[in-house]
Amino acid sequence: LQFAQRQKENGLIVEDYDMLDGKTEDFGLNINDDTPLFMWGVWHHYAVTHDRSFLDEAFDAVLKAGRHIASQRNEQGLVWCTSEELGSPGIVSWRNVIKNYRLSGAVTEPNSECYGAFRCVAALARARGDEDTADEFDRLAEQLRDAIEKHLTNPGNGLYYLNIDVDGTPQSDITADLVFPVLFDVPPPEKAASIVRRLMDRDFWTPGGMRAIPHDAVNYSAKEDSGCFGGVWNGMTFWFAKAVAAYDPDFMDEALTNGYENYARDPQRNNTVPGQFSEWLHGETLVNEGMLLSPWFPPRYLWAAIEGALGMDISGERASISPNMPSYWTWCGLRNAPFRGKGLTWFVTRAPELRAYANRELDADFPCEVLDEDISERVQCSGGDAISLGFSSADRLVALVGNTNDRSITTALRIEDLDGTYVCKRFDSLEKAWLPEQTLEAKQLGRGITLLVAPRGFILFELTRRST
């Protein structure tokens, strides 16, 4: 809302503002990426919270921004940046720190973002009961997507141009920016798959994440211009992880894992802090060359994990889940995520078919049992590699112990504050079978039971209290 309060009269959202003196910066651009991303951010916040007072307060700014974007289309129907400057005043892109460089005209990145933003306005208007505005922006979105497909498609490779410059010249550079049409659902499935396939090629990738442009590009530089021509910006790594999740979950896992773990690899040499997301890395040495702590990357990582890896969709009346689980994952879960006024916890197991357990109603294409209470705080397991989750409802209790290590682990499961006797069913991911029922006393569960959990595996408990 701070950005909404500083919105320009024409509807543009400023690039930044100084919290001390209130001065704003927009580099004199007629369009930027901040404007559609602000609109997407408002939609996302509303989708997570369903905070109607927030929506009512923010909607006018979103609508104003949407009408401004619509007014900045050229005769081809593309969102058009008019700047002929170099450097930040001439770059309508996330890579706006490059000196003596222009990325203006019809740029694929912001055009893709604007398509997504139009869809967001439609969804927000529909949530307010304004079907006319919703239909208007759905039409604008379709018109923009048609224009992108018609004019920004590169016939030479079937992908997208980087941009059509203000002088009318198409730029066919292959960069990591190709991820944006996929992120915002612009291309048809076949083209999206082609983009993902190209961005998975080895010339983009390092052991620490994704380069901004491929190693073999003629303008590649591992360090110059803040790494925007070949350095590793792990925000881009996490964007790509989100985009690739539905196509190649194994690659998604590799991107998220390497992008995060690199911060802990030889911190003294690499100028990093373990567990802390630094800004950008040298494209060859992977030494941090930017901020030690970037405010932008942690939320992108979480977004890629929750909506990419876990496949959680928040666009509907209730959340839906379709996990993009790598081939070697047997379980996944989310604990106590704030969602529409209440903590949301769920987990999915391959037992052996997919099945889910949750504390709230979820849409899924596989069985999902809803129990009344998240009791994960009372379900404890020992060791840093073990994760525990649990639910209860009346006389029924479900608990999961998951192993995050690629080796077997021994852990102890304790479930606190129980009484009585329980009939226990247990599924072991290694055996891929439900084991014979056994009887467990509450005291046994309170003291702890020892478990040997297979690599990346889980043990699932279904406990039913025996009536006296």
Strand order within the widest sheet?
Answer: 16-18-19-24-21-22
CATH C-level of the largest domain: Mainly Alpha
- The CATH architecture of the largest domain would be Alpha/alpha barrel
* SS field, number of helical segments: 12
Kindly identify the CATH topology of the largest domain.
Glycosyltransferase
Rg (C-alpha, Å): 25 Å
Unreliably modeled segments: none
Mind explaining what this structure looks like?
The chain is of the alpha+beta class and 468 residues long. It has 3 domains: 1-172, Alpha/alpha barrel (Glycosyltransferase), CATH 1.50.10.10; 188-309, no CATH class; 320-465, Golgi alpha-mannosidase II (Immunoglobulin-like, Sandwich). Helix content is 31%, strand content 23%. The chain has 12 helices and 24 strands. The chain has helices at 2-5, 34-49, 52-71, 108-127, 131-151, 179-183, 189-199, 234-244, 249-261, 267-270, 297-309, 442-447; strands at 16-17, 24-25, 106-107, 163-164, 170-171, 205-206, 209-210, 232-233, 280-281, 312-313, 320-321, 331-339, 342-350, 354-358, 368-370, 373-374, 379-381, 386-393, 396-403, 409-415, 421-428, 433-441, 449-453, 458-465. The strands form 8 sheets. A 6-stranded antiparallel sheet has the order 16-18-19-24-21-22. It has a 4-stranded mixed sheet with strand order 12-13-14-15, with no helix packed on it. The protein has a 3-stranded antiparallel sheet with strand order 3-4-5. A hairpin with a 2-residue loop joins strand 18 and strand 19. Helix 3 crosses helix 4 (108-127) and helix 8 runs antiparallel to helix 9 (249-261). It is globular, with a radius of gyration of 25 Å.
